[in-house]
Specification:
heterodimer, A: mainly beta, four-stranded antiparallel β-sheet, 11 strands, 58% strand, B: mainly beta, six-stranded mixed β-sheet, 9 strands
Amino acid sequence: EVQLVESGGGLVQRGGSLRLSCAASGFTFSSYWMSWVRQAPGKGLEWVANIKEDGSERYYVDAVKGRFTISRDNAKNSLYLQMNSLRAEDTAVYYCARNIEVVVVATTTHSFDVWGQGTMVTVSS
Amino acid sequence: QSVLTQPPSVSGAPGQRVTISCTGTSSNIGTGYAVHWYQHLPGTAPKLLIYANINRPSGVPDRFSGSKSGTSASLAITGLQAEDEADYYCQSYDSSLSAWVFGGGTKLTVL
């Protein structure tokens, strides 16, 4: 069974740090781009970051650039999100998601075809 | 304010057809980037419903269909069922932001 399981969420003070993990199973982890997507309380989904299969490319939403770092360990089938200088607005459920590259009329984009159950991060002020 | 605009809510009676719109701009949907749709029930993992504008992953009922035209896309649900009550999100890529973007979400209520 294809599965993603997040861990590492919790309560942290403003300015603090937290490291999220995502354990993948049931598929060849090293063959896929991976992403983190979050949902703040009462808000919609927001893409946070993604990383290429071999870790050579990483992209971030502007709101977390310079504070968050996405990484992966293909030998351990694991994805990580190191979150530093946390702010109240980072409070959210964080989902790990598998990317699928889609090419339509020579234009490439990604959809997210497998998701974890999410881990809650609460930043107290 | 989301880059992709969706109506906050839609509703329909069981058996009816509803559509959810997703309006973008020339830097995302209008450029040709594909649109994908997700169903999200609170407390659960989001589920991919439609990818690349019109395609359904295996296991998704054919009651769900997608379309795209110009700078907009739509999700249609026919034969509405109580279990379809959920939040629905469109998603694409924005070249101006260099970011993957979601719509603000639409809450579907089955009356």
